[in-house]
């Protein structure tokens, strides 16, 4: 997900009717409060890469755990979805299952800035943070990052897919014995025919009877 889109997601007002906007009111702000639930949501658009992804609107199953902590709400979850794409070797359509785990902190708007970052070293403050909007949080950018990062960069229909014939483009898995006889380019075939005619002409001349007048050394 681009930085611009992430920033837009952070700044845009949340719609409580969106299936990926979660309400945390039941948790309150008491550290240790938990809420676990599952839901099925339609996949947002552009949830994939060039060769494979989750079709927009297809069902995604989410198992979620919301935990109230001092800094905000810690969201832990697993997303499952059906992927569609094409094999990078034979270009045939394929379908696969996707499972992506994620965990993200959503800070209270009034939380101390220092508490918004996990203690991960000197680069911690460079990491992106998310905030609650009132009692609402938007799960879409977190879900998008988790799913896209879990996608195979080189999806194949089967591990031993032989791909396509480099000469004719035939799918080799459909014809394991696929082969080509050495074909001669018609342009070379024409030249070989001409060369053969010239050789035959030279042989005819060599085998022709000679007379005394034909001897080039006769004077």
From TrEMBL:
Chain segments annotated as transmembrane: none
Biased composition (Basic and acidic residues): 199-219
InterPro entries, per the entry: YceD
Disordered: region residues: 1-25, 195-219
Source domain of life: Bacteria
PANTHER family per record: LARGE RIBOSOMAL RNA SUBUNIT ACCUMULATION PROTEIN YCED HOMOLOG 1, CHLOROPLASTIC
Name used for this protein in its record: DUF177 domain-containing protein
Organism: Streptomyces pini
Upper taxonomic lineage: Bacteria, Bacillati, Actinomycetota, Actinomycetes, Kitasatosporales
């Amino acid at each position: 997900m681009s930085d611009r889109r992430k920033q837009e997601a952070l700044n845009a007002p949340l719609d409580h009717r969106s299936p990926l906007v979660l309400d945390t009111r039941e948790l309150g702000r008491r550290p240790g409060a938990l809420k676990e639930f599952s839901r099925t949501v339609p996949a947002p658009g552009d949830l994939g890469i060039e060769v494979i992804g989750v079709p927009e609107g297809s069902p995604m199953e989410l198992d979620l755990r919301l935990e109230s902590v001092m800094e905000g709400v810690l969201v832990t979850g697993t997303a499952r979805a059906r992927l569609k794409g094409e094999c990078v070797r034979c270009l045939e359509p394929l379908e696969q299952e996707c499972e992506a785990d994620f965990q993200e902190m959503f800070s209270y708007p009034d939380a101390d800035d220092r508490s918004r970052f996990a203690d991960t070293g000197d680069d911690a403050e460079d990491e992106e943070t998310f905030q609650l909007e009132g009692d609402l949080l938007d799960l879409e950018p977190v879900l998008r990052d988790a799913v896209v990062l879990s996608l195979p960069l080189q999806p194949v229909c089967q591990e031993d897919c032989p791909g396509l014939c480099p000469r004719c483009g035939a799918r080799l898995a459909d014809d394991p014995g696929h082969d080509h006889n050495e074909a001669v380019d018609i342009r070379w075939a024409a030249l070989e025919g001409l060369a053969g005619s010239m050789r035959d002409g030279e042989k005819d001349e060599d085998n022709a009877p000679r007379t005394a007048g034909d001897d080039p050394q006769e004077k």
